[in-house]
Design goal:
Shape of chain A: globular
Strand content of chain A: over 45%
Helix content of chain B: under 10%
Order of helices and strands of chain A: EEEEEEEEEEE
Distance between the termini of chain B: 36 Å
Radius of gyration of chain A: 14 Å
Number of strands of chain A: 11
Structural class of chain B: mainly beta
Helix content of chain A: under 10%
Number of strands of chain B: 11
Distance between the termini of chain A: 40 Å
Radius of gyration of chain B: 13 Å
Largest interface: A-B, 23 and 22 residues
Largest sheet of chain A: 6 strands, mixed
Oligomer: heterodimer
Chain lengths: 114, 112
């Protein structure tokens, strides 16, 4: 199936700094790219998503950018706060024999240090 | 309240004893999926379903079965569990493949 790579696997930032997580995909037909946040002991929850016809999307302190030519998309978190500490997963749709499916990246553990 | 429920939340069992983990959603979602989460390996898809009676394998289907007889339910069946199936399992549903997935609370399974 499709492979989504995610970097870095761990990231530590000082409170108030920015954090950037990058994902790459290989299927040029991928058209939907969500980001999920999973706090310790909890279920993953969608924080932002972007579709292939858009280059950037923002929601308060978080933003996602998509570069279709290079086949990568990135999550940007500005003015990080301790509650941003979590594991973040990117994901992408991809083509299968008769339709589409969905795959997650391996995750990035973000630690925001006070 | 819109939600995805899973049962049981915790299960300890022995090798070879058949078990079923139930998943139910009340949002009339068409797409449902099962994932297993292991440390350092992220969320790996086991099986997914695009609609009633339509299911297909994900990345790690070996040792698992699913069925989708009703839109709201998507049970995960382990016919003969083995210790390598010890994991945290999540069910998820969404209106379509390109829509937000809602995750259940997770089922922590231990096979001894």
């Amino acid at each position: 199936g499709e492979n989504v790579e995610q970097h870095p696997s761990t990231l530590s930032v000082q409170e108030g700094d920015s954090a950037v997580i990058k994902c790459t995909y290989s299927d040029s037909a991928s058209n939907y790219f969500p980001w999920y946040k999973q706090e310790l002991g909890k279920r993953p929850q969608l924080i932002i998503d972007i579709r292939s016809n858009v280059g950037e999307k923002k929601d308060q302190r978080i933003a996602v950018t998509l570069n279709k030519t290079a086949k990568h998309f990135s999550l940007h978190i500005t003015e990080t706060q301790p509650e941003d500490s979590a594991v973040y997963f990117c994901a992408a749709t991809y083509r299968e024999n008769y339709g589409q499916n969905f795959v997650f990246g391996p995750g990035t553990r973000l630690s925001v240090l006070p | 309240e819109a939600q995805v429920t899973q049962n049981p939340r915790y299960l300890i069992t022995v090798t070879g004893k058949k078990l079923t983990v139930t998943c139910s959603q009340n949002m009339n979602h068409e797409y449902m999926s099962w994932y297993r989460q292991d440390p350092g390996l992220g969320l790996r898809q086991i099986y997914y379903s695009m609609n009633v009676e339509v299911t297909d394998k994900g990345d790690v289907p070996e040792g698992y079965k699913v069925s989708r007889k009703e839109k709201r339910n998507f049970p995960l069946i382990l016919e003969s569990p083995s210790p390598n199936q010890t994991s945290l399992y999540f069910c998820a549903s969404s209106l379509s493949l390109t829509a937000r997935q809602y995750f259940g609370p997770g089922t922590r399974l231990t096979v001894t």
